[in-house]
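Notebook entry, structure prediction.
Reason for the run: the old model in the group folder had no record of what sequence produced it. Starting over properly, with the input documented here first.
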Amino acid sequence: MNPLIKNIILLLLFVISISCDDPSPIEINNEDEEVALSVVNPESDTYVITGYDSTGINEKDLSKVSIIALSGIKNTFEKITTYRAYGEAVFFDITKPVFTNSNKLIGYKTIDVGNVKFGNRPANIVPFVLQFRENFIKKDTLLGQKHTILYTRVLQPDQLSFNYNKIVQIELISKLGISNKLSMRVPDEIIGRVEITGTSIQRNRKIVLSWKQSGIQAISSSEEFSEEIIVGGISSDKDELVPLLRAGELLSNRLEIPNSLVKEVLASGRFEYIVFTFLRKIRKSNSTSRLGDIYFASQSIHNIWVKI
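New structure, fully documented this time:
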């Protein structure tokens, strides 16, 4: 198989492992403002594999009883960009927790709520298999079911599958035919750029990340807007993308990664590719009488692959 096509397919299938350990923050000065650039520790012996590059969900808060997520995703690999849209709705039963063999809580069994529509598109009901690592061994367990939609357009965006900077209607239809309509705002599209200068031999390699600023004019009091960058690495002999760095609470549209981190973390020889993930999110919670608090997360995601 052509290596380019193989890697694009792999990226669409990959899940990202997020450590359950707290990352170590490193304060760096980025054009006269402090930015917390955290080094993520992927070496914990137990953690849940989440998939932030394909869903935008990287939170570890197990208190969220119901989650509805909608993502517009771009993957740029060697100047070729693929487009996809992904929607997911999952509803948990907190009276049915799921533990690892070492008695660590990793999730809950799910509830069958009926059917879900994203806009006018019915979601598919599929098994919800949670992947995790325990004692450094990759495992999975069936939690129940989830509702998903997935649309892919290889060389150009599908305007019908994801509407940036719009309000999307979500409809929950019970088995008795009772409809509950909710809405979520989608952020405008994030467009990332990676600029690399210098060489590892001269020890002056420099990585500057920049992105198009958001054009959203107003966010309601119930919504939370944020932008985040996650940097991960992948080796040629493994099918798992490992998170390395995370930068949140970004106040500008430019971030320079210090040469020390480029050398010690990104260019350490462990990885063949580095993936820069630009995330723009809008989150909110909505209380319902039937399902309690529902957590909404909509995001624009741009993954850029760079060969090291």
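Summary: The chain has three helices and 19 strands.
The old model has been moved to the deprecated folder.
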